[in-house]
Design brief:
about 120 residues; mainly alpha; 4 helices
Length: about 120
């Protein structure tokens, strides 16, 4: 599994889980970057401690703009952010079966973020 350090890492792993590895992709990179940004904003709401700067002041979550951007998410919670990304992409699909899977992934994201990692 990838280290999930950059936006490209998240996109590659999400594509693998979504079985979207053949060009022309169902889910464009820009849509995935937008979903990743939404996940980071949601993480900021749930876990603002992830975004505390060294000077003990809260800083805004990063705005990821391209695939080479470093995500900078805590190591123990990167898989949760990946779950959010995959869930958000599945919500775009019209198939009802994907709705349940998407909701489960989005719920997993919230549950994992609210669980402390030792």
């Amino acid at each position: 599994m990838a280290q999930l350090t950059t936006v490209a890492d998240y996109i590659a792993e999400a594509r693998r889980l979504l079985q979207d590895q053949q060009a022309t992709f169902r889910y464009p990179d820009l849509d995935m970057i937008e979903a990743l940004n939404h996940g980071i904003m949601e993480a900021f709401r749930l876990r603002p401690d992830f975004f505390v700067a060294a000077a003990s002041a809260f800083s805004a979550p990063p705005d990821l703009t391209n695939t080479s951007s470093n995500v900078g998410f805590p190591l123990g919670y990167r898989h949760a952010l990946l779950s959010y990304l995959v869930g958000k992409m599945l919500l775009r699909d019209a198939e009802p079966a994907n709705d349940a899977r998407a909701n489960a992934l989005m719920s997993r994201f919230t549950a994992q973020l609210l669980t402390l990692v030792a």
